[in-house]
Specification:
mainly alpha; single chain; about 0% strand; about 80% helix
Length: about 230
């Protein structure tokens, strides 16, 4: 049963990130958010194939999984997410050098931090420093997302504001426990934890899209900023 729930949670993450990643581009032309959503989509798809093919740790899919995970945990669902959301909170349109620089940081994080992965919660200095960095940058992102939820509430989008706050809190919990607090009742592969994590990340991908949409519609109605860059959002 645990394995089935795990596979279902991965399919959920695949469905949400592919769907809403494409919507972010088609409806808003937000390059940074689109790329981050699609990186997670590729990561979850790769993880599914790796699992179905036997979970061989010598497979290149195994190393790719950790590289893509490092992309998102370092600068993807953190810095890239914040810059992408600034387009609807402050009308910020990042210049090319900001986009290139941010993506370069995320790729560097994938290449460098992805190689530092450990299957166990080994807290020697390199792994402890990396795990601490992941938690700190996630907490900073959580603070911005709390502000984003507040802006949604003030805009009258109370339901999506509450949903944004809930999935953000859940995502922060996953980030904090990822390397520091394994579930005592989990198995050696941390199946229960990863099932929870994949489910939460999928909920974040969907919720943040609709939060972005709600903020964009509020801005358009108020004439505050020309946030919409494409045809009517679906």
């Amino acid at each position: 049963m645990k394995d089935i729930l795990f596979l279902l949670s991965d399919l959920w993450l695949m469905a949400t990130t592919w769907t809403y990643g494409i919507k972010l581009w088609r409806n808003y032309r937000n390059l940074l958010l689109t790329l981050e959503w699609l990186v997670v989509a590729v990561s979850s798809t790769n993880f599914l194939f790796w699992s179905l093919l036997g979970g061989d740790k010598s497979s290149p899919l195994y190393d790719l999984a950790y590289a893509l995970d490092a992309f998102s945990r370092s600068f993807g669902i953190t810095l890239i997410l914040v810059i992408g959301l600034l387009s609807v909170t402050h009308g910020y349109k990042p210049p090319v050098w900001v986009k290139v620089g941010t993506l370069t940081l995320a790729v560097a994080g994938a290449l460098v931090f992805g190689r530092m992965h450990s299957d166990h919660l080994v807290h020697d200095f390199p792994h402890l420093a990396l795990a601490t960095f992941y938690v700190v940058i996630n907490l900073l992102t959580t603070a911005f997302l709390a502000y984003f939820a507040t802006r949604l509430w003030q805009a009258g989008a109370t339901k999506i504001a509450v949903a944004t706050a809930i999935v953000t809190a859940a995502g922060c919990y996953v980030a904090v426990t990822y390397d520091f607090s394994p579930f005592s009742f989990d198995d050696a592969n941390r199946t229960i934890f990863y099932t929870l994590a994949l489910t939460v990340w999928g909920a974040q991908a969907m919720t943040y899209y609709y939060a972005y949409k709600a903020m964009d519609e509020h801005n358009e109605a108020a004439g505050a900023m020309p946030a919409r860059t494409a045809s009517t959002a679906a």
